[in-house]
Every structure is written in C-alpha cells, then in structure tokens.
Amino acid sequence: MVNSAISATQTLDKISVTALKGVGASLAEKLTKIGLFSLQDILFHLPLRYMDRTRVTPIGGLQPNINAVIEGEVRACDIVFGKRRSLVVRMQDGTGGISLRFYHFNAAQKNQLTSGTRLRVFGETRRGAAGLEMYHPEYDLLSEAKPLPLEQHLTPIYPATEGLTQPRLRTLAAQALTWLGTHNLRELLPDELRQQLNQSSLADALRYLHQPPTNANVHLLMEGEHPFQQRLAFEELLAHHLSLLLLRRQTQADGASQLYINTKLQTNFLAQLPFELTRAQARVYKEIVADLVKPVPMLG
Question: Is the pTM here over 0.90, yes or no?
C-alpha cells in the first residue's frame, strides 16, 4: 500500500526505499550496496533475464539444464552426509520423480517438508547420482483449501548481492510499480518528440520490463533489443550526448586561463641565447608575448 503521508507531487527519485513495506534499516543498507537508494532506483534496477513460470511441467517430461515449474508430493525428506551435509527431498507427481537438494537449511525447513506435503517448485534441473535434481529451488506449499495461482507474467531475475534474494527483489519491484501509478516519474523526453519518434512513455517501458506478459518476445528481451529496452537506451544515450554538449559549452565559455611571466626570468633567458635576435625576431617575440602573457612586477 502506498504511504499516503508522502505527497503525490513528490517525484520517485526523492522517496527513500524505506517507504516500501518491509524495508527497514537493515534491508535498506543491503540495497545501498547495489546502488538502490530511492524508489526510482528500484524501478531502474532492471532484470538480467527472464524465466517462464506461467505453466507447470510434468516431472516425467523434464530434461537436464532447464528451468521449470513442477508440482508434486514429498515422498521422503532426509539429511544426507557426504562431502557436504545436505537436506534431500524426494518428490513425485505420478509421471516421475526428482530430488530437491539444499545445502543451507534449518530444522524448521526439514520439519515443514514432511512426507505427503504437496509443493510447487521452481528451479534448474541437473543430473544427479540418482537422476534429476534441483539445487536450492524456490518452492511454495500447496493446499487444496487455498489454491496457489500461477504467475501471470514472465519472472524477472535481477542483479543481486548477498542477503538479497530474488523473491525479495521481485516484491520490492512490484511495490515500486504500485507507486508509479500514483507518483511522478520525471519524463525527460517531451511528448511531441516521443510521438514523433514513436517512443513509449518511460512509465510504460518500466512496467513492461519488470512484468512482461506471457506472450512477450523473450528472444528480443534476452538480446536487449525489445522496443521497451530500446526506449530506455535511447533516453540514456540522449542524456549522455546532451551532458557532453553541456560540458563543451561550459569549457568554451570559461576560456583559457591568463598566462603570467616573470620578466626577470625572460630577460635572463634571452641573455643566455648563443645569438642575438634580429630586429624581425625581436618584434615577433614581443608580439607573441603580448598576446599570451601579462607581465607582473617583480617582488624584491
């Protein structure tokens, strides 16, 4: 829910990440490690890639090295001791079985994943000693009394750091998009120019890139060539070009610094020459010095 205490006229670059639900001092500090200070920063923290979590794949139809959503029932959950201690969950759905392996776990998690528990799991499949496995997949508990809907859009994968999980980053991005509907995001491109260049609004581009619909062209998104990605790239390049022009204008307005010369050192230099300047040389020398320098009186 948007904080009503913050004025709707306040731009998102001025609103701290702490305005988001669940963001306290500790989480805010983790966000600063990847340069996220404001809600605008959250919105411009764009996904690296996307995954399709809009449909369930039968376990029997899985192949190695793919990302998939599966559903099934826990058959066994045991702590296995090998090179590293791990929690191994055996899961089946009627078409086949798969192992879920967790190297980082706690007693509460083990007690939660008891035999008969139904799960929806998302992760990458790998070949294991006893068949396909998923390492540290994301999962949700399923309940017949409270069905869990599938995702309605492609799932973004964000740049992260230690202590920031993908579910947390997705939640923050979703909240920031809610703020985008009620607060201002400064549009740098004039409406007339955007229409002339057939460019979408900045807000529409950000909404799409954080939550692409299921029919989105994934290939274009992965290559960074989707029109909404190009919209952001165009504005970034335009801003960079304008900043260079501004620096150039400032440099030209400042002009060159005035040069000063010590007249005593100048006289000594001329006296040390192994020849005497001709009248023409002396005249040209004086003209050059007059144009470039301004003599100052010697002290002492």
Answer: no
